Amino acid sequence: MDNFAFISLGSNMGDRESFLKKAIDSLGNNENIIIEKLSSIYETDPIGYTDQDCFLNMVVQIKTGLSPIELLRVCLNIEEEIGRVRGFRWGPRVIDLDILLYNDENIEMESLQVPHPRLQERAFVIVPLLEINRSIKLPTTNAPLAEVLDEIPDKEGVRLWKQINGEDAYALFES
Ligand SMILES: Nc1ncnc2c1ncn2[C@@H]1O[C@H](COP(=O)(O)OP(=O)(O)OP(=O)(O)O)[C@@H](O)[C@H]1O
Ligand SMILES: Nc1nc2c(c(=O)[nH]1)N=C(CO)CN2
């Protein structure tokens, strides 16, 4: 498990928290993934396509023996398992898993770009990421993420919804 990665989770349909929990359970049940940290859960105004319900968003930090492409495959399988039906771009979804960062790598494949190409525009991703690690820098430009957040206008659309500390993290994993 020599690699670290950050994965963002989002849901804006049905029992949103239960879908986040299911996704985290599935990640943790993978023998090649260790969940290291969970952010709190944030309720966030929809970005991109705005005529839809608010999202719950959070970020997890993992250690993994999987390659980036293998990790993407795992994420897509979890989305499918939980029942995501692909609708239109940026539209409502029961669960969305995105790979934000994988080590300090810059990956430019057709099916996978890391850092996630829209990471820098999305307060709903950066706020939970900074909660886990204040000193993260973007591998592309070396810019501290805290400075990137300063430049984003939509920060007030990201509200703490459920604080997760050690104890809550355990409760979130309890079935
Ligand atoms: N870093 C990444 N993490 C997850 N998927 C990625 C990444 N880079 C590229 N992709 C590709 O994006 C495809 C579509 O992803 P998805 O349907 O979740 O997009 P979206 O959530 O609607 O929009 P966005 O990418 O802006 O979050 C995936 O099948 C995957 O191949
Ligand atoms: N607030 C918020 N807005 C979004 C989200 C999301 O997770 N949270 N995901 C999207 C598609 O990737 C589009 N818009």
UniProtKB/TrEMBL annotation:
InterPro entries linked: Hppk, Hppk_sf
SUPFAM superfamilies per UniProt: 6-hydroxymethyl-7,8-dihydropterin pyrophosphokinase, HPPK
Annotated keywords: ATP-binding, Folate biosynthesis, Kinase, Nucleotide-binding, Transferase
Pfam families: HPPK
Associated pathway: Cofactor biosynthesis; tetrahydrofolate biosynthesis; 2-amino-4-hydroxy-6-hydroxymethyl-7,8-dihydropteridine diphosphate from 7,8-dihydroneopterin triphosphate: step 4/4
Gene Ontology MF terms: 2-amino-4-hydroxy-6-hydroxymethyldihydropteridine diphosphokinase activity
Domain of life: Bacteria
EC number, UniProt record: 2.7.6.3
Annotated ranges, domain 7,8-dihydro-6-hydroxymethylpterin-pyrophosphokinase: 89-100
Catalytic activity: 6-hydroxymethyl-7,8-dihydropterin + ATP = (7,8-dihydropterin-6-yl)methyl diphosphate + AMP + H(+)
Name this protein carries in UniProt: 2-amino-4-hydroxy-6-hydroxymethyldihydropteridine diphosphokinase
Source species of the chain: Lederbergia graminis
Primary gene name: folK
